[in-house]
């Protein structure tokens, strides 16, 4: 499902955040208790995953609508990017967890030094991005756009770890990428398997 950017751009920042909250809440409610629908390995992993934190982080996005303290602007912007980047990573880990059996049976899955397969929640963000680029997005016409954007988000999120100077852009940049995350979230949720359409999320704006 491709969401027209023009339609996303019509949303205010807080309207976009409300939709992110709605979709991540739905993902938590359905996939945290998917035993009987998802394969047992996937259901077990999802039941332990902190999808509730994805919801809480979605609510946290409301804080970044405006900066109430000019002296905290850069600090708040760094925290905002960390907030958004963590949501991006969490969406990817949810997707891979739902398709856990496919990942476990893939000869190119990731292993630790002992040869044990890394579970989705153990994979570092950059390796996760590479796996999605090679396996999940490879049939998408604009796969390189997803890859480049996720790399960008990873770099902006990592500003929170840096003592040296890093590019962090502006709050307007951040708000623009929040809408891109909404489209990214919709794209992946639209490709998750549900027992019936009525159980899926509302992907319309």
Describe the structure.
Helices cover 59% and strands 0% of the residues. The chain is mostly helical and 205 residues long. It has one domain (13-199). α2 packs parallel to α9 (171-189), α4 (51-60) runs antiparallel to α5 (73-98) and α7 (125-136) packs antiparallel against α8. The relative contact order is 0.17. The model has no long low-confidence stretch (mean pLDDT 90).
Question: Top keywords for this entry?
Answer:
single chain; 205 residues; mainly alpha; 9 helices; 59% helix
Mean pLDDT across the residues is: 90
Counted by DSSP, the helix tally is 9
* Net shape: globular
Distance separating the two termini: 13 Å
The gyration radius over C-alpha positions equals: 17 Å
Major β-sheet, in short?
A: none
Into which percent range does the helicity of residues fall?
A: 55-70%
Structural class: mainly alpha
Question: Summarize this, please?
Answer:
This protein has helices at 5-9, 13-31, 40-48, 51-60, 73-98, 100-104, 125-136, 143-157, 171-189.
